[in-house]
Every structure is written in structure tokens, then in C-alpha cells.
Write a structure and sequence with these properties.
alpha+beta
């Protein structure tokens, strides 16, 4: 699905942007469904809907209003939409993720839409994904599909290439899982980020250990990402899925090995947010006990 040099670039940098992964029609179908959810958000003043664990499915930013919609998260959209199910499970995105993982098989773990509508406040502070979804090994990829065009100005993902080969940093402060690294790590490691952007239909494939963040969208152009997480078939999850779904664990490539493979990692298991998304943890508004 991709060339060997791209695989090697991913292995070196922990990140790879591939354009034209999905067709114009596939993207149009995804955009159409998301537009309907944005329209529905204008009738709500707070998070709504329900996922398998009873938390809200649709999460709103604090600046949301009927005339200024700020729908920042849709959890497990594969349960609502054939287009999103196809993108996560049977599209070229899933096939490339499996190629990059490179083991006997690849499982789907979870998915969500993270959106920054025009002139909205949503931001993501520096973190790694693995502490949110620890497994017995870290052959795990986050695939960020650009449903809308992502530019250097509208809140793209910023990454630190090569940081996936470094340590796993604590995402706990003052006995609370904050979902972000300490300010000292940001100062020491995150001062020269690279932005990941491209036309709609592009996918940014990111290693689960890579340091990344993003800033608010101050432009007129929306930035909508459909994010799917894939794990090697022989990676055993440690703890509860933060976004449980009826589709979690589906094999998207390869076959069952019946084996569990372990790599040496040490970390404190995360807290699951009580609110609709991890945004409340990063904002310090989630008060789940340790």
C-alpha cells in the first residue's frame, strides 16, 4: 500500500503523512455525516448522546453556541455511520496502518472525531497516546484521517519526530491523571515541533509513543480529523478501553496468532475520564479519584 522508504521514514520519525488515502467520494460521505452532527449540535447546550459506558457521545467546547457551533468530539462514530465504519475497518487507511505495524495481524482498538470548527478554542496539550491505552507491547498506531483540509494555520497536529524512541513520560500530576506531560518535559523536549497537514483524504500515521499537541483554530477553515487507533494482534490491552465500542478488537488485517507479545515498559495506569472526553482531564475539570 505504501513504499518501503515510507515505512522506513515512519520507523525513524514515528510519524508519516500519506496523501490521497481515501477517495473524494469517501471523504464526501464522511463530511456529510459530520455536517449533520454539527447541525444537531446547534440544538444542544451541553454534551449529549450516549456511548456503551454511559458517557456522552457528542462533546462540546466551552465556547459552543447555536450560532457558533463548537462540536469538538464524536466518540465511536463507527457505531453511527457506515462511512466511518468503512474508513476505520476496510479502507486503505486500515491497510496502511497494518503495513506499518508489520506483525501477523492488526486489531481496531477505538475511534473518535476530533474537530476544530472555525474560530473555536479547542486545543490539545503535549502528550503521548500510549499512557491512555497501555498494552503489553507498543506496536500501536494512531491514524488521523483529514476529513477536511488541514493547513499550518488551522490547528494541525504538531509532533516531535523521533520522540517515540525516547521515554514514556508521566501523565500524572498531583495524584491526578491530567493526560499531559509535565511543563518541564515541554520545555526540554517540545520546542521544535513539526506540523502535520495535507488535503482532505490525507492520513497522518503516528506511533503511540510520539509526543504531540495542537493549538486552537483561529481561521475560517474547519479542521476535522477522524482518528482510529490500531494495535498489533498480539498486543494485550492493560485496563479498560477509554472509548469502548462494539467494534473494539475487530481484526482488520492478518490473522489470530493466539500469542501475547510483551515489551519492557513501565508506567502508571491511566484514569478514565468521567466527562465526555479527555479534554476535561487536560483542562483539570475531571475529578475522578486516583
Amino acid at each position: 500500500m505504501i513504499e518501503q522508504w515510507q515505512v522506513e521514514q515512519f520507523q525513524r520519525d514515528g510519524v508519516l503523512v500519506v496523501e490521497n488515502v481515501l477517495s473524494a467520494q469517501e471523504i464526501a460521505d464522511l463530511q456529510n455525516d459530520f455536517d449533520q452532527w454539527v447541525a444537531e449540535s446547534c440544538t444542544h447546550q451541553e454534551a449529549w448522546g450516549e456511548t456503551q459506558d454511559g458517557r456522552a457521545r457528542f462533546d462540546l467546547e466551552g465556547d459552543h453556541s447555536a450560532d457558533h457551533p463548537s462540536l469538538r468530539r464524536v466518540s465511536s462514530p463507527t457505531e453511527l455511520s457506515k462511512a466511518y465504519y468503512h474508513a476505520a475497518m476496510t479502507s486503505r487507511m486500515a491497510a496502511i496502518a497494518a503495513q506499518l505495524i508489520g506483525h501477523s495481524g492488526t486489531r481496531f482498538h477505538h475511534s473518535k472525531i476530533n474537530s476544530k470548527l472555525p474560530h473555536t478554542a479547542t486545543r490539545v496539550d503535549w502528550h503521548q497516546d500510549f499512557p491512555f491505552t497501555p498494552h503489553s507491547n507498543d506496536d500501536i498506531i494512531t491514524a488521523l484521517l483529514m476529513v477536511s483540509e488541514v493547513t499550518p494555520e488551522n490547528g494541525p497536529l504538531n509532533v516531535i519526530p523521533g520522540s517515540h524512541k525516547g521515554p514514556l513520560y508521566s501523565h500524572w500530576q498531583n495524584q491526578r491523571f491530567t493526560g499531559q506531560v509535565d511543563a518541564s518535559v515541554v520545555e526540554a523536549e517540545c520546542q521544535q515541533p513539526a506540523a502535520c497537514y495535507g488535503p482532505a483524504g490525507s492520513v497522518c500515521f503516528m506511533h503511540t509513543r510520539l509526543l504531540h499537541a495542537s493549538s486552537p483554530n483561529h481561521t475560517e477553515q474547519p479542521r476535522t480529523l477522524f482518528i482510529s487507533v490500531y494495535a498489533a494482534e498480539d498486543a494485550l490491552p492493560f485496563g479498560e478501553n477509554p472509548l469502548p465500542s462494539e467494534h473494539a478488537g475487530i481484526l482488520v488485517a492478518g490473522e489470530e496468532s493466539g500469542m501475547v507479545r510483551s515489551t519492557a515498559n513501565q508506567l502508571r495506569l491511566p484514569q478514565k475520564p468521567r466527562g465526555a472526553s479527555f479534554f476535561v482531564q487536560q483542562a483539570g475539570k475531571d475529578l475522578a479519584s486516583a
